[in-house]
Amino acid sequence: MAWMNQERKAKIVAAAKPILAKYGMKATFRCTQHSITCTLKSGSIDFLADMNTQRTMMDIDHARERYNFEVNPYWFDDHYRDGTAKDFIGEMITALKAADYYDRSDISTDYFDTAYYYNLKVGDWNKPYTLTTK
User: What is the pLDDT of residue 10?
Assistant: First the structure.
């Protein structure tokens, strides 16, 4: 059964701090009974520019006004070009799994056997991600 506690959160934050410092990113960590969420607040990585999708500059500028979304940990390899954003997300997902993470879930059953759930968000609905200059 998924379970998150302060000891696991401390392990995850300790694993994530060097990665955040390496890329010059600021983030907050929040845990609930079953999950941990890392919300990226600001940094020099432009996640929208590194996406594989075809977007016009107007679409990107509009998206930057409300710079918030959740990263899909299973498909980020397909959604980002090789580069800083993809490398950072990969390292952060590894850090989010640093606290005794296991996943023995079975798609054919209606329950999941996993240590805890994790989320990686870029910005929040009420406070968008702030892109700083490099």
Answer: 96
